[in-house]
Amino acid sequence: MSEPLADLRVAVLGVGLMGSYHAQALATRVKGVTVTVINDFFEPKAQEVAAAIPGARVVTDPIEAINAEDVDAVVIATPGKAHEDQVRACLQRGIPVLCEKPLTTDIASAYQLVQDELATGRTLIQVGFMRRFDAEYVQLRELIASGGLGNPLIVHCTHRNPDVPPHFDSEMMIRDSVVHEVDAVRFLLDEEITAVSVLKPTPTSSAPAGFHDPMIVILETESGRIATDEIFVRTGVAYEVRTEVVGEKGTATIGLDQNLIRTGTDGRWGGQISPGFVQRFDGAYHTELQRWADAARRGTVDGPGAWDGYAAVAVCEAGAEAVRTGQRVEVAMAKRS
């Protein structure tokens, strides 16, 4: 009988909202993991998070944290501009990394990381597209793949947030929010997105001057399918994410559970909506982390990889240009090796 695998020793870089969530989840909910190192550019926050995790310590330099002797794998939740150097340091050390989106902040550096990973001969990069681990998205993908809807023709997405910081402009809506629909469409349809257009309806009065909120993003795929995404990040209501696939033999919609309609004898009707993305996708995050940790203990990863991160960056760059120009923009992507 083979020896049981030792616990995976993990460093978490960046402990804002997402990183602190990951650190706590890895320490308390994910099996086979010990969080040994916490890093953040704001050291008091790192100290606060580490103090709540038995055995964790703070390392102030992120590259030093990656190279620590008691670190077997890394979770990166730092700002996007730091990802390139930190992911590359993981590759150079030969350890698995789960990097929150974006993989990097530009197409060239994202593609270079794809090439750098290929040069190692191993699969070490996983990108944090958690919807791929959500039970509803998995079920919908399986339904499509089995032919249950016939040929899928159109995908309709809705992505609404109750509020965002004042600086969250129209391009950030593409790069930080629509990016999830970009990956979801690629995941569901199993093909690349080739062009992006953006329509700008009358903006909500909650949007700062010059910001376009809501927007309708139109994604074209290589086979000619169309996906639409209503992105509205200042609804003042709650967090709503829905996806409908229209096929030749039927339709299927996910995300309706958070809008369960109820009726009562007093004539009222209504339901509940998730207050935020963490609550909506808590189960998906847990599954993502557990599967990543299980794979990382074997020296690899289990989920969307470097190419998926690169593709998302390329599509979002086209989307940001479409916001700026008002034109349909083709996605500039290399051919997959």
Features of this protein?
337 residues, Dihydrodipicolinate Reductase, domain 2, 36% helix, 6-stranded parallel β-sheet, globular, 7-stranded mixed β-sheet, alpha/beta
Largest sheet: 7 strands, mixed
The overall average pLDDT, rounded, is 94
Contiguous runs where pLDDT drops below 50 for at least 5 residues = 259-264
Strand content: 15-25%
Number of strands: 15
* CA-based shape: globular
Report how far the terminal alpha carbons are from each other.
Answer: 39 Å
What is Rg?
20 Å
The name of the CATH superfamily of the largest domain reads Dihydrodipicolinate Reductase, domain 2
Q: Predict the CATH topology of the largest domain.
A: Dihydrodipicolinate Reductase, domain 2
Order of helices and strands: EHEHEHEHEHEHEHEEEEEEEHHHE
Query: From the 3D coordinates, which CATH architecture of the largest domain would you assign?
Result: 2-Layer Sandwich
Regarding CATH, which class of the largest domain? Alpha Beta
Function: Involved in the oxidation of myo-inositol (MI) to 2-keto-myo-inositol (2KMI or 2-inosose).
Catalytic activity: myo-inositol + NAD(+) = scyllo-inosose + NADH + H(+)
Organism: Nakamurella flavida
Domain Gfo/Idh/MocA-like oxidoreductase C-terminal: 141-331
